[in-house]
Design brief:
Belongs to the MurCDEF family. The chain is of the alpha/beta class. It has 17 helices and 20 strands. α4 links the parallel β4 and β5. α1 runs parallel beside α7, α6 packs across α11 and α16 crosses α17. The radius of gyration is 23 Å and the shape is globular.
């Protein structure tokens, strides 16, 4: 052992995905003694990066005596807190943090943190799009693209727009975004929160826990869960609500088809008629993004143009092809019931709905009115479809089970008629038949193109 290893702090990274490898690089760059450990197999592209940076790593195991001597542990969001190893580290008093917490310590940039059960990816991409068009030196990270840690190592931007999941927020201690956005809260991921909604809600609100009176909290005031939580647990930051139905002195609301934003008597008004993305939920995403942009003093004309030329997110209500006048739509990113609610709500004509996967304790009842009104057939795509069949057996005459995307799409092609839709909006996670929702969406698009 070399004599200076005593001085070097030891950073152990658990999980060698995008966030893990990014953290390892930043840690190495900041002079830590870094060790990366993954219980699964590490992807070849990440092994190469670790070798290039001369970072020690192991796969398919967690060697405890290499881990327990850490000064700090960065845990990937996919690893639950309940794991024995994590409990041991916490008992020993070793800080176990997320990549977001680690990376934020090494940047002086202004951080815009965006979380919520739905809409966070679109809002993050839309906000980043406006900032770029407003010529701000901005980067986007978190759940999207290159990891936050890697970006902090490479190019320190002046602004970071971060998409944050509840799992990433569970691992923060001092992290405080200057501007926090909470798009909405609906029951999701309850399997990780002991099936208690209040645990999940508290987790989302961690985004504001270290904010001060100098910071801002932008949120959906139409969301009952958020409103009720704020009454019982007031936060310190300045509140900027947005709503489709209420009006505010400070905040953002809809009036006569216009978005009106007021912050300290500084008012801007923007029409919603030319928004690139359709649907009420996208009006809300636009409200959130434009409130951030107005706070950052971006010109109204720039905000407006950006909202009009933004193209949306892959796998989110993405129009794939029209075949025989049937529109095929990829909404693979809908991994919970509320996301699928938005998708069905946006359908203007009869729809063949492809649904199913790994259920996170879903309650499908809120979909009944929409399914009755819009869905002519249901195609189940999961290993176990019993819950979907039980939920919708009385709403729809035609329910079929399939085990592959190709089979599901070919069936949909047979059932759908002119001017109807075929919608992949699974309301579930994808891990039973696919690697992730992206792969599920890509397979859908390929199967449609092969028709």
């Amino acid at each position: 052992m070399n004599h200076n290893s005593k001085i070097k702090k030891r950073l152990v990274v658990l999980g060698a995905g995008e966030s893990g490898v990014g953290t390892a690089i930043l840690g190495k760059n900041k002079g830590f003694d870094v060790f990366v450990s993954d219980k699964g197999v590490i992807a070849e592209k990440y092994k190469e990066v670790l070798r290039n940076f001369e970072i020690e790593w192991e796969e398919q195991q967690h060697t405890e005596n290499e881990i327990m001597n850490a000064d700090v542990v960065m845990k990937s969001p996919g690893i639950p807190d309940k794991v024995e190893l994590i409990k041991k580290l916490q008992k020993k008093g070793v800080p176990v943090i997320s990549e977001i917490e680690f990376a934020a310590r090494y940047t002086t940039a202004q951080i815009i943190g965006i979380t919520g059960s739905n809409g966070k990816t679109t809002t993050t991409m839309l906000t980043y799009h406006v900032l770029k068009q407003g010529d701000l030196k901005a980067s986007m990270a978190g759940n999207i693209g290159d990891s936050f840690a890697k970006q902090v190592t490479k190019n320190d931007a002046s602004f970071y727009v971060l998409e944050l999941s509840s799992f990433q927020l569970d691992g923060i201690k001092d992290f405080a975004p200057h501007i926090a956005v909470l798009t909405n809260i609906t029951p999701d991921h309850l399997d990780r929160y002991d099936y208690k909604l209040e645990n999940y809600v508290a987790s989302k609100f961690r985004i504001a826990m270290n904010q001060t009176e100098e910071d801002y909290f932008i949120y959906d005031a139409d969301n009952k869960i958020i409103e009720e939580y704020l009454i019982k647990h007031p936060i310190r930051s300045r509140l900027l609500p947005f709503s489709l139905t209420k009006k505010f002195e400070n905040g953002t609301y809809l009036e006569d088809g216009n978005i009106k934003i007021t912050i300290d008597n500084n008012k801007i008004i923007m029409p919603t008629t030319d928004l690139a993305l359709e649907g009420n939920h996208n009006v809300k995403n636009a409200m959130a993004a434009s409130t951030v942009s107005h706070l950052l003093k971006i010109r109204k004309a720039t905000i407006r143009e950006s909202l009009e030329n933004f193209h949306g997110v892959e796998h989110r209500l993405e129009k794939v092809l029209k075949i025989n006048n049937v529109q095929y739509i990829n909404d693979s990113k809908a991994t919970n019931v509320n996301a699928t609610f938005y998708a069905l709500d946006a359908m203007k004509s009869a729809t063949v709905w492809i649904v199913g996967g790994v259920d996170k304790g879903n309650d499908y009842s809120e979909l009944y009115p929409l399914v009755n009104e819009k869905v002519k057939a249901i195609i189940c795509l999961g290993v176990d479809n019993s819950k979907v069949i039980n939920a919708f057996g009385n709403c729809v005459d035609n329910i079929v089970e399939t085990q592959s995307m190709k089979e599901a799409v070919e069936l949909a092609y047979k059932i759908a008629e002119r001017n109807e839709n075929v919608l992949l909006s699974p309301a579930c996670a994808s891990f039973d038949l696919f690697k992730n929702y992206e792969e599920r969406g890509r397979q859908f698009k390929e199967a449609v193109r092969e028709l």
